[in-house]
């Protein structure tokens, strides 16, 4: 578990984070969401010590990270895995060498044991035949998966993902999301994901922190977000009409008014229960639509 | 003011790399890799430059040595001393500032921009130590060796040029090489080589490590690193000559 208490961070005179407090639980996919420039990446970089906070506390399982010496931080960081937005793979190394690198640096295992572990994690992220390829030779989605494999190869207690879906198609994004969720559960990791991908929010948002202009605006989960009356959050999450419709549908599902088996044929064929059609009719007769 | 801030940051980078390695074997591997990159990688260009440097030096000295009272073998002495004292350490290191310096700045700059340095930091690795120190050590090991090779090849180039053009015979050239040889000149050249090696590796590493922005900034950092290294080499060249000679 990672706890944040009253985090403040500014660059020169520009305030980036303003009194952020949150709890990120282990075994859950914790999401930090917000528009570009809302402070997500800065918050995550503060949490791993790439930036120093101006004030406030970051507590890793009861240990205050902000008060740790550099040596203590180095030890803690060996329990942290991070997936970067651009994957941050080492260009000059093969996929296998990239994933093996943390093992080379921090274990005294023999070569065969290291290769076995590398193959295990590559298998876990469904990359079985890319060991000898270089990062330039693989796709964006594969790079993300190699990044995940490298992040989990030392069995970390904490996993940070900075926009894991950026630049990926929706299908590949979903694969990455599901993979992160499975790994989180499997290894009971405290996973913190920065994202502004709405699919991720709805699919894996077990604990969501919404940042607005560097402030903690809303906390909840992917079920609560549907019913949230926070205007800023709703404008951000359900920005398009399509997403607003999806929200309405999900609300009806959650309230049990319609089935959530994703089979809408019954609803559409039954005029009495066709709430979606009614809703559309209403909109068509709304003065704004004319 | 900016100068002091930059110089302070440079000193902090050097201080920051002096920590205990996380894994000695990996650091050794990286050091060997950098020795190959800097040393072996620069060998062809150093050999070509040195060969022509010696040949041109011989031809131009012969052009100026018109006094019949000066023995022909003096040409070899002039070529030898010029190559050892100035051409091999200074000229070669200025070329290396371009070749090696831009490579170091570009490599570290790219690693910074693509968050590879952050990735290493998150793993708990001291990146100043792991990425910068092996480069500086490798430069300190290989560049003096390259300077020695450059001196030998340069003198040999002068011999070829002298022999081929018939300025003097190769026997006279060899005889001249052994006359009035001052061993201190070699030590002086090595002192210069070590100083320049440190400049060539640490300045580009500083600019590359601290790149902020994108691809354009990597290019700018490389250029700044090379220009700064060249100026510092020339300054150090004069300072060492004034102090040691």
Commentary on this structure:
The complex is a heterodimer of chains A (290) and B (245). Chain A folds into 2 domains: 2-229, P-loop containing nucleotide triphosphate hydrolases (Rossmann fold), CATH 3.40.50.300; 240-290, no CATH class. Chain A has 290 residues and is of the alpha/beta class. Chain A contains 12 helices and 10 strands. Chain B is mainly α. Chain B has one domain. The mean pLDDT of chain B is 92. The interface between A and B is medium-sized, with 26 and 15 residues.
What is the radius of gyration of chain B?
A: 21 Å
Question: What order do the helices and strands of chain B follow?
Answer: HHHHHHHH
- Tally of individual domains of chain A: 2
Topology pattern of chain A, helix = H, strand = E: EEEHEEHEHHHEHEHEEHHHHH
Helix-residue proportion of chain B:
over 70%
Indicate the low-confidence ranges of chain A by residue numbers: 270-281
Helix segment tally of chain B: 8
Percentage of β-strand residues of chain B: under 5%
Widest sheet: strand ordering of chain A: 6-7-8-3-9-10
Topology:
The complex is a heterodimer of chains A (290) and B (245).
Chain A: E1 2-11, E2 14-24, E3 29-33, H1 40-47, E4 55-60, E5 63-64, H2 70-77, E6 80-83, H3 95-106, H4 111-124, H5 140-152, E7 158-162, H6 170-187, E8 190-195, H7 198-204, E9 207-212, E10 215-220, H8 224-227, H9 231-237, H10 241-254, H11 265-269, H12 275-284
Helix pairs in contact in A: 3-4, 3-5, 4-5, 5-6, 6-7
Chain B: H1 2-16, H2 24-64, H3 74-113, H4 116-122, H5 127-165, H6 170-177, H7 183-209, H8 215-244
Helix pairs in contact in B: 2-3, 2-5, 3-5, 3-6, 3-7, 3-8, 5-7, 7-8
